[in-house]
Amino acid sequence: MAQGRSGDLIWLRPEHAAVGRPAQRSRAEVTAASVAIADRDGLEAVSMRRVAAELGTGAASLYRYVETRDELLDLMTDSVAAEYSLAAPSGDWLADLVSVGEQARAILRRHPWLAPLVITRPVLGPHGLTVLEHVLDVLAPHPADIAAKLEAFATLNAITAVFALNELAGGSAAQRRNAAYLQHAVTSGEHPRLARLLARAPATTADPGDRYADILTRVMTGLLGPPSRPRPAMG
Amino acid sequence: MAQGRSGDLIWLRPEHAAVGRPAQRSRAEVTAASVAIADRDGLEAVSMRRVAAELGTGAASLYRYVETRDELLDLMTDSVAAEYSLAAPSGDWLADLVSVGEQARAILRRHPWLAPLVITRPVLGPHGLTVLEHVLDVLAPHPADIAAKLEAFATLNAITAVFALNELAGGSAAQRRNAAYLQHAVTSGEHPRLARLLARAPATTADPGDRYADILTRVMTGLLGPPSRPRPAMG
DNA sequence: TCTATTCGCAAACTCTGTTCGCGAACTATG
DNA sequence: CATAGTTCGCGAACAGAGTTTGCGAATAGA
Hints:
The structure is a homodimer.
Chain A lengths: L26 H15 L6 H8 L13 H12 L12 H18 L3 H7 L5 H13 L7 H23 L4 H15 L4 H6 L10 H17 L11
The structure holds a DNA duplex.
């Protein structure tokens, strides 16, 4: 009963006991196997039995490394946050923030299961902490108070995740259903106003890659003010 | 086998067959029961058996009204979109957009299960279509092209949902864990830089209610330009 | 009344996360 | 080297999930 937990935080909990039979696998190994399965077959394929099979063990064995499946998902989320490559602040905080955003977008594209996870269950692990530290470092010279900076970071993450979600859902069954219903509404003649509002459909859709940086730049500027002439926090 | 589907869209699929034994319940009734359960006990409590029990029927009966559980979730999502009260555009599109956002936030607070749903599986049903039409109506005088307006609407929804998610998760176990880990990182002395960046913690945290309108206003302004002097879509 | 069709739903199937219990394996001690 | 103490691996089992099947019951139209 006296399992070695430190306040129920897996990040502080010792991986293996110092005595007794040593474990055959590491927490990182279990995490990597889970990420591999999720990358290949999606998040719902990450079942305890499947992860165990990937490792060549029994399902119940995983509970020696993790208290619950949700905890395993937390490990997965934080592990891919190690894929950031964070350079020293350049002095242009807006450009540095956009760089963070674009790296986040790249990671989210690399791991299609990530976006729903980071939105619905935000996790702060060791690697996530490194990113947070970097962002605060980048914003250090900015006069806004800490709360505003944290809000800006949260907004950056939210916009990026939703943007990636829409990109990844491109052509999915759900998205095609929505488009089909919109098409029906416009075509059927029951929504003449909507049809008029959507009349001049753009012939050329802009490249999503460029749209993202533009949107993020505008939003961050709106939140923190133009980079050259920062505004005070209170009006 | 010849079930009356119209392109797999539940919004166009006839609720009941014209012949044969009539159904005892309506699709709206099933949806309302599901929403009631979710409001009371959360989304994971919305199981087919539980919804059936709430209606006093058997679990398998629900499949006469819905093809799958996900479809039931779509019905739930669209049904609460009926709670908007959309007035005619006032002429101030920014104010009208903020009004839509605050109503969305109110709905999200009223139904704590909604936020994860609308983010991870965006659904366009009849009521959602009404909201979309309203937003396009509000933005009709704005010179931006349609794609930019749709992006602005998507961003509005994303920010609002994430904001509501954070509000609703206030004091949750997961959030307390994150705070505890951050506390540990700052206290333990292993992250002196992070500790310094977080040094001057604000003594007074602003009211989230006011923060939301402020953030949304800034973001929408950043995306669509200041309301009095709109900017062209391309630079 | 008879036929065609749909509805309601108990039962079963597969899959899920999780717990229990015990033999096996290892460390530390005497 | 033996023995005690502890942990690990994991087969088996449990509760609950979504969904399918099959059939008796109910209704509309002829």
